[in-house]
Design brief:
About 35% of the residues lie in helices and about 25% in strands. It is of the alpha+beta class. The strands form 6 sheets. The chain has a 7-stranded mixed β-sheet, sandwiched between helices. Strands 10-9-8-12 form a 4-stranded mixed β-sheet.
Length: about 450
């Protein structure tokens, strides 16, 4: 099916997304493109995201009031003092964070790191925070720290529109973005080949010449004029023919991914929770996050029902991944009912498992140098462009990946590499804030692009 990591799956009349994919963007051009594509299919959704930690709910992003009530004055005071201490030290000695632990402590102080971020991060990645690069937190929380929280609480800025409280969403599921594009491609005479696996990418003299794929056990080769790849970067390099040099292959083996099981539970009840999604820190509960589709759009479930989607982080081939569907569904139902007591077994209508390999690129320590070497090697192919989260090995949101796709298309149209795909998603602002420009004119899609010089 189309949609990749941002699909909407339909099962027995229920539609659910493969994870909480809300639409927000700081790029007006990309937002205009999406609104033009979907028109009146887009609705505004009020967002409530919370952290479930030690049987208490905390607002996320962190809010002073709920944090005080949940942590208590003593722990909150420790967190603020910790943060002030870190900021004081950084006035005289600023060390570049290397690991995820370094990054969280530098931004939030050790108290909040230990309370909120360490347990969840290690549950997500399946390894110590000391083994993950600080770049991950840099991409997710640029400019966002306790100082930001306090200033926004006490002195609400009129120059910032927060994407915390509301976001745009296609009322029939996030997969409608990809589905609508597919409809337009087919309507205009294009072809989309589904249920196929790319097995070989042929190249001669720094030019990709053909793509071989297998469909229904039949191997087919297409001649290639231009290639845009969003498959995982390491997979792309593995199937190049002739094969890559041994030195590049060695670097390529260092790239890894975190996989995910998504467990959808169909419930004979509506609005089981008030949340769009919840982060779950407890190590005793198998899922890292869950969302309720009825709180995104009432068009996604039959009347009087909703879908709860639980995400379980794991690795392909491990004990959790190898569990059968029935066992996984039972494990999630039992844990959710026992912990939250919001539904009973009589409310359960059924379930479905969606297995998603390579959900997240893993930023190992030193990954940036490794990815740089691989991309430098691939840069020799004049008709190949890399896009998307796994295609560029960068933790993109949907809007970033769409922006990359537009740039790659325009580069083909212009017959030169005018638009720099690598410039997408490297800005320094917090990803969920957008600064307003006073009296900024409306710009067309073609104008609102910074060209590479």
């Amino acid at each position: 099916d189309v949609g990749g990591l941002a699909r909407t799956i339909e099962k027995n009349g229920f539609r659910f997304d493969t994870g909480p994919h809300r639409w927000y963007t700081k790029n007006d051009m990309v937002n205009t493109w999406m609104l033009k594509l979907l028109g009146d299919e887009v609705v505004k959704v009020p967002r409530l995201t919370r952290i479930y930690f030690d049987q208490k709910f905390f607002n996320y992003p962190i809010k002073i009031k709920s944090t005080l009530m949940g942590m208590g004055l003593v722990k909150t005071s420790m967190a603020v003092l910790d943060y002030c201490f870190i900021r004081f030290i950084q006035l005289f000695y600023r060390k570049q964070p290397i690991s995820l632990e370094d990054g969280y402590v530098a931004k939030f102080g050790r108290t909040l790191y230990q309370l909120f971020f360490k347990r969840y991060s290690e549950k997500l990645w399946g390894t110590s925070c000391q083994n993950i690069s600080a770049d991950w937190i840099g991409q997710r929380t640029r400019g966002f720290n306790i100082g930001t929280i306090i200033k926004e609480t006490l002195f609400k800025s009129k120059e910032i529109v927060s994407f915390v409280d509301e976001f745009s969403y296609p009322k029939n599921g996030i997969g409608r973005i990809a589905q609508k594009m597919a409809e337009e491609i087919i309507k205009n005479g294009g072809t989309i080949i589904l249920k196929s696996t790319v097995t070989k990418i042929q190249h001669i003299n720094e030019h990709v010449t053909g793509i071989t794929y297998v469909s229904k056990k039949i191997s087919v080769t297409l001649e290639a004029e231009q290639v845009i790849s969003s498959i995982p970067l390491s997979d792309l390099i593995d199937i190049l023919s002739p094969v890559i040099p041994a030195e590049i292959a060695k670097v390529n083996k260092r790239l890894t991914y975190r996989d995910e099981l998504q467990v959808a539970i169909f419930v004979k009840k509506t609005h089981v929770t008030p949340d769009t999604w919840v982060y779950v820190h407890s190590l005793e509960l198998p899922f890292i996050r869950f969302m309720e589709m009825d709180n995104w759009s009432e068009k996604l479930s039959p009347d009087g029902t909703t879908t709860l989607v639980f995400e379980i982080a794991c690795n392909v081939g491990d004990e959790t991944w190898n569990l059968g569907d029935k066992e996984l569904i039972e494990r999630v139902i039992k844990a959710f009912i026992s912990e939250f007591k919001l539904i009973t077994r009589k409310d359960i209508l059924g379930g479905h498992i969606h297995r998603m390999p390579k959900e997240y690129p893993v930023y190992h320590i030193g990954y940036r140098e490794d990815v740089g070497k691989l991309k430098n090697y691939l840069a020799r192919f004049r008709n190949l462009q890399l896009v998307g989260r796994n295609g560029t090995f960068r933790y993109n949101n949907m809007d970033h990946s769409i922006e990359m796709g537009l740039y790659s298309a325009w580069n083909i149209i212009e017959n030169e590499r005018k638009f720099d795909i690598e410039s997408v998603n490297i800005e320094r602002e917090y990803l969920e804030e957008k600064r307003l420009r006073v009296a900024e004119p409306e710009l067309s899609e073609d104008q609102y692009v910074e060209e590479k010089h």
